[in-house]
Amino acid sequence: SPAISDRSEDAWDAIVVGAGAAGIIVADRLSQAGKRTLLLEGGGPSYGITGGTQRPEWLEGTNLSRVDVPGLYKSIFADQGNLTCGTLLNAFGGCTIGGNTAINAGLFFEPPASDYDLYYPRKWKSADMERATAKVYSRQSSTDNPSSDHIRYYQSGYDAAREWIVEGAGFSQVDLNRNADRKTKVFGRPIWNYHNGQRGGPVKTYLQSALKRSCFQLKSGTRVKRVLRSGDRATGVLTVSNNVEKTYKLRRNGRVILSGGALFSPQLLMLSGIGDPGVLNKIAAAGLLDDLSPSSWINNTAVGDKLFDNPNTFIELESPEITSFVHSYDDPVPEEAEPYVERRAGPYTFASQTSAFFNTIKHSNGDVVGLQGTIDTAGYNEYTSNHTITLNIYGTSGLKSTGRVQLDENFVPGPSQETYYSHPRDAQDIATFIRSIFDALPASSLTPLNIAQNATHAEIVEYITTPSAYAVGQVNHWSSSCRFGKCVDENTKVIGTRNIFVVDGSIVPPLSVNPQFGIMVAAERASELILRL
Ligand SMILES: Cc1cc2nc3c(=O)[nH]c(=O)nc-3n(C[C@H](O)[C@H](O)[C@H](O)COP(=O)(O)OP(=O)(O)OC[C@H]3O[C@@H](n4cnc5c(N)ncnc54)[C@H](O)[C@@H]3O)c2cc1C
């Protein structure tokens, strides 16, 4: 008989769906433990190392793709190439090897211990997470000074922000990861997961170790349509690749791990007959659950519920002392392109953030709400003089507004409207934060352009909750749509199933920091727990 060279004919101990921040790590750890592991990714090549070749002319002759160069981060918003999810998602996101880690800014902030102790269940408290955090640090390098010449470029916005936030508002200047537990009145340099002046992330680290193992296989360009199951047990997955459907089977004690991200994993559960019965009825009416009788649906309204994203506001600031900077995709000045190509030096080694700061608001009932500001080297939209910069203000942990993963008429997932500001306290808290830092503006040379410096608290609430180019946009820090206790159990197993797991942003509660670091730690922890089962 002919030799079977394609091991997809075999059965797998673990089928991991989605090669993003979490999926790559879980697949690496399970294959390291000797499990026959198949990692399925709907998207295609991204970084040069994955076969990605999309690049501007000035990178011709290198092995870099646009994904590798931190300074080309923002170009993704103007031209997505084939890196993003397009019509598969009602939001902006990376559908490519690396998922959103291949298109994000690479900001890499460790969550404070209090996030684990306040918002996670048993087995996930800060003491349980120390090992997982140490594992992430040992695999994934990070830096606050990425240029090989150790010069930080275009720092006039940093200097102005420091005058304002540290000298004016009294925040402490700290190394934000060495002091990860401090999230009240701290200011510091951005920290990225870059390595040697290039984009880092799990594709450059965990995926490379997995690829060396014979028990591991990555199949890109392969979308999972649904999990196949017999009752509460998954038996495999149905995929589509180049319009051809194919089944991948699990071994007897095998597991499916969904790591498609906080919008796609709930969608996939629903398309597999697991979720809110009202939604399952609609999917069935469209003929998409034909092989599952309603008696084998697993009704769970927590699938896709309590979706979170950071509500954000862009505040445009101007100062005669600032020189703005915008990276160019096609045509960087030779004095900035050459040092990058030759020795990974210059401003193309960073994605344009110059500082970040954090604060908290403590409510009388004990709730603690996290707030974050991140400052960029350029203005935005109507405010792009050579002297403007953008402050991006987020509400983070402890916010009360959440939405749902909503499927449209084509069953494409996206956020429901209540995701932002559906609870009035959130806007009050964020406005309080903005008002308090605005009080310190006179200490700096900065003038806000889109919100008046003397705006009242009520005016700020109105501004941040009224959709505009500067407010109520999607930050795409999706999380929390398959929460512990209701959607998955403490071992990340979907409640009501025997062997279907969710490990990605879906299980991570709203964090005090940008989500990638916390999602990677969650993947390390989930791998430990799954391997113990
Ligand atoms: C523009 C942008 C900038 C960001 N900047 C930062 C930042 O600087 N710092 C930070 O911490 N976070 C940032 N984030 C967020 C961060 O990247 C994400 O939170 C994180 O990558 C999510 O990880 P995940 O494992 O949940 O899924 P993802 O990284 O989203 O990966 C999911 C993968 O699964 C695949 N997939 C989904 N469904 C299927 C299916 N059915 N079949 C096959 N494959 C499937 C997708 O194609 C995708 O590749 C940013 C996000 C965006 C969009």
From TrEMBL:
Keywords on record: FAD, Flavoprotein, Signal
Residue ranges of domain Glucose-methanol-choline oxidoreductase N-terminal in the record: 261-275
Cofactor(s), by name: FAD
Coiled coil: none
Pfam families in the cross-refs: GMC_oxred_C (PF05199), GMC_oxred_N (PF00732)
Top-level taxon in the UniProt lineage: Eukaryota
MF-aspect GO terms: flavin adenine dinucleotide binding; oxidoreductase activity, acting on CH-OH group of donors
Protein family membership: Belongs to the GMC oxidoreductase family.
UniProt-recorded name of the protein: GMC oxidoreductase
Species in which this protein is naturally found: Patellaria atrata CBS 101060
